[in-house]
Amino acid sequence: MLAPKDDDDTLASWAAHFRQYYCLDSEIDELRRGYDLSRQDYLLEIVFPDAQATPGPSIRAGDFAEILVADYLQHLLGYHVPQWRYDEKIIRNESVKGADVIGFRLVGDAESPLDELVVYEAKATLSGRERGNRLQDAIDDSAKDFNIRKAYSLNAMRRRYIRAHQSTWRT
């Protein structure tokens, strides 16, 4: 069970961390230019999945679950987990296609058989709704076109890396 500390500073820090997955603080003013919206309203009306209108709430729950898995892998298990899925969403009330969470653990600068790639399918249920067997759902969904999802997701990461670094990927 998730039990965050009940203090304003911890919750504000955690909220800011989650917000960065969708929109970097360093970019928000440029992105909202022309909308005539405050930062908060821009995020709530343009960026984050809708809090009320279907399917927004279920998309929020799914995104939240994926972010928790990504953070667990990165901050507790030491994997590098690229954060690229949510900041380029075209439609805020749709889930991002591809593998839910991909993490890398490299043991050195050169390729090694000890390097690791992990791919996760994350599932969530809105509170107050029937839970069902979400673990089985994740297992079933992870088997669907796994290699295709993984390949497309890795290719998307590669494209973003190359654009961000204006260089070539190590082959």
Write the layout of secondary structure elements.
Elements: H1 8-22, H2 28-32, H3 39-47, H4 56-76, E1 101-105, E2 116-120, H5 134-143, H6 146-165
Antiparallel strand pairs: 1-2
The major sheet is characterized as: 2 strands, antiparallel
Total count of strands:
2
Q: Which percent range fits the helix content? A: 40-55%
Mean pLDDT: 87
Low-confidence stretches: none
Portion in beta strands: 5-15%
Rg over C-alpha atoms, rounded to the nearest angstrom: 17 Å
Report the span from N to C terminus.
41 Å
Keywords summarizing the entry:
171 residues; 47% helix; mainly alpha; two-stranded antiparallel sheet; 6 helices; 2 strands
Task: Give a brief description.
With 171 residues, the protein is mostly helical. It is built from 6 helices and 2 strands; from the N terminus they run ααααββαα.
Explain what this protein looks like in three dimensions.
The model has no long low-confidence stretch (mean pLDDT 87). The protein has 171 residues and is mainly alpha-helical. The chain is built from 6 helices and 2 strands, in the order ααααββαα. It has a two-stranded antiparallel ribbon with strand order 1-2. It is globular, with a radius of gyration of 17 Å. The protein has helices at 8-22, 28-32, 39-47, 56-76, 134-143, 146-165; strands at residues 101-105, 116-120. The protein has a domain at 49-165.
